[in-house]
Amino acid sequence: MSLQIIPFQSSLNTCYILKDKGAVLIDGAWAGAAKSFSKLLTDSQIKPEEIQLIIITHGDFDHLGGAKELSELTGAKIAIHEKDRENLEKGKFHWPEGVTTWGKVSRAMFKPLMKIKGAFPAVKADIVLDDKGLSLKEYGIPGNIVYTPGHTYGSVSVLLETGDAFIGCLAQNKAPFVFKPSLPIYAKDYDLLKKSWKKVIDQGAKTIYPGHGKSFPVEKILKYLN
Ligand SMILES: [Zn+2]
Ligand SMILES: [Zn+2]
């Protein structure tokens, strides 16, 4: 069977089901996502229990809010990097600071509302990732989880042998954040983020699947990295 990539839209976020010999989910969506996720599984002819792992790209509320209910629905383990783990396990609202003018303005504007809309239940991590990442071979997926900090200190990406790269918020491609493939407008450490991009590119990424918006060829991001 060849690899399937199935996007799952949850508010402004795009999560991805990867299905090959096994199946995993990238990112935990917003709280309240279980019903629409369940429908997507039915439509895609995937049984809930086929999803064995939920990989949280980073510890922001919009990427892990639904992790508890999606893991209960599927029985999947939850993996997150040790540096972002606390947000998941304590139900802690996190959103990195703005690095562009719009990033700063939009965060100040929307944070009070997001703190309410983005509230989520805490859940324990089953797999705590370190900087070495993790092979996805035992989950039947040809690729690796790679440590790619910068947007948050515990950000990770999933890089497949096919060159498909699921990078969370190492880039954004969705209004109202940005209007074309760009580096994120929120980040903890931009220099670190650019270093992580070098890592992603060196490991053969060709098509980039962001946590917000549609996929794009890696070439679109190169101009931001010099
Ligand atoms: Zn984020
Ligand atoms: Zn996000």
Low-confidence stretches: none
- Helicity level, as a percent range? 25-40%
For the terminal residues, how far apart are their CA atoms?
39 Å
What structural class do the secondary elements suggest? alpha/beta
Stated plainly, the CATH topology of the domain at 4-159 is called Metallo-beta-lactamase, Chain A
| Average pLDDT metric | 97
Order of helices and strands: EEEHEHHEHHEEEEEHEEH
**Gyration radius, in Å:** 16 Å
> What's the total number of strands?
12
Categorize the overall geometry.
globular
What's the CATH class label of the domain at 4-159? Alpha Beta
Q: Helix count, per DSSP?
A: 7
State the major sheet.
6 strands, mixed
Could you tell me which ligands this complex binds, including any ions or cofactors? zinc ion
Approximate strand percentage: 15-25%
Question: Describe it for me?
Answer:
There is one protein chain. With 226 residues, the protein is α/β, with parallel strands linked by helices. The chain has a domain at 4-159: Ribonuclease Z/Hydroxyacylglutathione hydrolase-like (Metallo-beta-lactamase, Chain A). Helices cover 27% and strands 24% of the residues. It is built from seven helices and twelve strands. It has helices spanning 34-43, 61-64, 67-74, 85-90, 101-117, 190-202, 219-222, and strands at 4-10, 13-19, 23-26, 51-55, 77-81, 127-129, 134-135, 143-147, 156-160, 164-168, 207-210, 216-217. The strands form two sheets. A six-stranded mixed beta sheet has the order 1-2-3-4-5-6, with helices on one face. A six-stranded mixed beta sheet has the order 7-8-9-10-11-12. Strand 8 and strand 9 (156-160) form a beta hairpin. It starts with a strand and ends with a helix. The mean pLDDT is 97. One zinc ion (ZN) is lined by residues 13, 60, 62-63, 169, 211-212.
